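Risk mitigation, structural track. In case the binding assays with S-adenosylmethionine fail to produce interpretable data, a predicted complex structure has been prepared as a fallback.
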Amino acid sequence: MPKKIYSLYSHFYDSVFGTLLHPGRRMASELMDIQPGEKILEVGIGTGISLPLYRRDAEVIGIDISRDMIKQAGEKKQRLGYHNVKLCITDASEMAFKNNYFDKVIASHSITVIPKPFETLKEIKRVCKENAEFFFLNYAGIDDNLVAKFEKALSPIRCRLGLGKTIDLEKLLNSANFHIDFKNRINIFKLVQLIKCRNNGV
Ligand SMILES: C[S@@+](CC[C@H](N)C(=O)[O-])C[C@H]1O[C@@H](n2cnc3c(N)ncnc32)[C@H](O)[C@@H]1O
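Fallback model:
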């Protein structure tokens, strides 16, 4: 499902979700505080809209399941000359990377879209170093009980549109043994959640 729908979205993704979600991406990249030489994984990199936010002396690997989204990211990488970036078509729930490789991981608006989020979190942990840091940006919905109920009812439609399931990300992160260090609601109407976690070693 994500492959088909994101193949379609790849043509207009940046125009629709570019500016709208960019303040959150910028805040996440500031919080990441990437250092020279660090190994960064972006899960569900899409059209590579975050590429300009990464420093050029870090090693960045972006994965996505959609060939068409990766194609767009590849064009950006070429055009902007990001020689430090590698892009792979990979299912985030079954990565081919070796254990203990990455220093930092970001999943920007992807964890609720990925069909197997729990397995993906386990994979993210496997490919990261022991003291790695993890960053999640995620549509969290309106922080109001009544509207939230209405939103939850619309969840199957959001899902069909490839906009992700309404899930309790904090609960999911806890169940996968991610220790939450920081969380904040950001963007317009505080609809987006920015969460920073670290490996708790389990
Ligand atoms: C909403 S887009 C987010 C793109 C970008 N990270 C951003 O900040 O806008 C979600 C991306 O997750 C990708 N995706 C969905 N399922 C995936 C999976 N199993 N493995 C890797 N990427 C996946 C989609 O193809 C899509 O490009």
